[in-house]
Amino acid sequence: MKSIKYIAMSLAVAAGTAFTSCTDLDETIYSQLTDDVVDVTDEAVVESMMGEAYTQLRYLYWGWNGYFDLQEECSDTYMTPKRIGVGWGDLYIPMHKHEWNAEQGHLEGFWYYAYVGIGYANQCIDVLPETGNAQAQMRFVRALNYYMLLDAFRNVPLETTRDVPEGHLPEQKSAQEIYDFCVSELNAIKGDLGTEKNFGYANRFAADMLLAKLYLNYNAWFGTNDTSNYSKALEEVNDVINNGGYELEPKYANNFKTDLSKNTECIFALPLDGTNASHCYLVNKCLVGAGAAAYGYQGSPWNGSCAVPQFIESYDPEDTRLADTWTGGVQHYYTAEGGPQSGDPIPFGDDDWAGQGVLNYSLQVHSIDNPGAYQQEGYRFVKEECQPDNHGTYGDDVNFFRLADAMFIKAECLLRLGQNEDEAAALVTQVRQRAFASTAKATRTAADLKGGSVYDYGHREYTCEGFANWDPASFKSTSEGGADIILGGLLDDLAWEFVGEHHRRQDLIRFKMQDGRNVFNGKSWFCKDATTETHWDYFPIPKSSLDANISLKQNQGYN
Question: How many helices (H) and strands (E) does the chain have?
Fold first, then answer.
């Protein structure tokens, strides 16, 4: 076995100083353990090391400005405006407007935790037997981290061992090399992962899903039009659907409960715990302080994130996923007998746009920053179960891959390949059926999915000031619609089903308009404007990482 220099140490050392500057990201500092005191043949010790590698996925996803924020804050569904009278939200303005740069705060933490996870995985891989489930688990974790780095940054350093000489600077690899590495790794370990379902650990079907994501997004990442990638993705999700033994949950909301260990739809999860692994801060990020009382939460929310109004307007009023995902209008107290929103209206006087003296979330929002959003503006994201105690959403498991996702990937691949389009429509319909009382409303045809989007794209912004002032003269708008989006109906269904599930940025980049631009760049929404620039499809390498590793080169389009 190769020498272990340090095990379960501080994250800066675990990740390697070559990956990022040494910054305090509020991570635990562990004791230094050397070869003299660590028996790597001890199964319990190795399991502890593996646990650290898996643990970093929680920080990568839910660390402040983590993977959730990168995928959702720049999308057409969810945003965090500057909150007038509250005093925060400015950080997210560039994310919404697509005006970020190498010093954007969102980038450093994500890059940092991804390489921390890779560092821990490499430590384990270096000492584990070369085959077997334990080795396969760590190679899956490493591939998952590289998949997220590829999606976000494209050209990144590739490190596959911790046994490196002192002063080593990791070499930046091309996006194609990172992609090829991920595909090769996942195909190599699928057999060793097996089919057993151990909550929080990967099996063959989790590897299928990760491979399917790689294949599905290849053309968008590399600017190609190779339909064989859709055939490859189709093969992977067929294995999940036909052989995985997963079932759609009868209720949509079941997929976002605090505890997903018994969830029949979940393929791979990031397990959290309100006491020992308390991540998922959405209860605080989204709700008005007084709004905590609607869910029995004992904390003090910060009043930040809300829905893009155009997205709320895209829902069918009979779609129960609207109420399962967002709360709007008058808010009511939680009661032990009736649960959330079952009591009297919650008094609230600040920015009382409706003049009722109660907390009343309005659909419309003034702007992202000019002047910003008043306190009661915007529907709030409540998709994750909020516990009626001091935990709220802190501790909610992350449903990273679920069966509905596999079914949607299959539907998309069939449509892009021009094969069995009625089957594609039937798959989407099957997922929708739990959200509609009416069979007619639940049913989607191939023509529906291949048609345009119902999203009313265009710039929408009120620049007037005053929480009750909606001066028509201050309204800035463009009219773009969604009729020109290829497979726009499917893009809509992806949003309604997977909003807030690390999907939307990736989907918007993958779907194109008739003029060849993708929706991410080619459409305007709220205060974000359309552009012909394409470098927004990926993020710049963080400046701190460039400073720490002089061999890194900045991504094209960023100076």
Answer: 20, 11
CA 28 distance to own-chain centroid = 24
H or E segment to which residue 525 belongs? strand 525-526
Contact by Cβ (8 Å): 202, 53: no
In angstroms, the CA 237 to CA 211 distance is: 9
The secondary structure of residue 189, as a DSSP letter, is H
DSSP state of 228: H
User: pLDDT tens-digit profile of 403-428?
Assistant: 999 999 999 999 999 999 999 999 99
Show the tokens assigned to 286. Answer: 């989204």
**In whole angstroms, how far apart are CA 476 and each of 111, 371, 458, 461?**
36, 13, 10, 5
Q: Are 326 and 336 in contact (CB under 8 A)?
A: no
Cα distance between residue 278 and residue 387, in whole Å? 13
Query: Tokens for 343?
Result: 């009591």
Radius of gyration of the chain (CA): 23
Look up tokens 């697509």; give the residue.
98
Distances (CA, A) of 312 to 77, 81, 92, 466, 507: 8, 16, 20, 23, 18
Sheet holding 458-462, edge to edge: 475-477, 458-462, 525-526
* pTM score: 0.93
**Beta-bridge partners for 358:** 347
Helix, strand or coil, per DSSP, at residue 77: coil
Phi, psi of 462, deg, nearest 5: -100, 120
Q: What is the pLDDT of residues 37-60, one digit of tens each?
A: 456 667 777 788 889 999 999 999
Cα–Cα dist 206/268, whole Å: 6
Please tell me whether residue 280 adopts helix, strand or coil conformation: coil
Compute CA distances 387 → 298, 299, 396, whole Å: 9, 11, 9
Is the pLDDT score of 10 beyond 80? no
Under 8 Å between Cβ of 376 and 353 = yes
Q: Where are the beta strands (DSSP E) in 208-289?
A: 266-270
Dump strand ranges (E) for 18-104.
78-79
Long-range contacts of 11-16 (CB under 8 A, 24+ apart): 11/56, 11/112, 11/113, 11/116, 14/116, 14/119, 14/120, 14/123, 15/112, 15/115, 15/116, 15/118, 15/119, 16/115, 16/119, 16/159, 16/168, 16/170
CB-based contacts of 427, cutoff 8 Å, min separation 6: 407, 408, 410, 411
Q: Rounded distance, CA 481 to CA 487, Å?
A: 14
Contacts of 501 (CB under 8 A, 6+ apart): 399
Residue 407 CB coordination number (10 Å): 22
DSSP 90: G
- C-alpha span between 279 and 206 (Å, rounded): 22
pLDDT score, position 162:
84
Instruction: Report the C-alpha gap between 217 and 221 in whole angstroms.
Output: 6
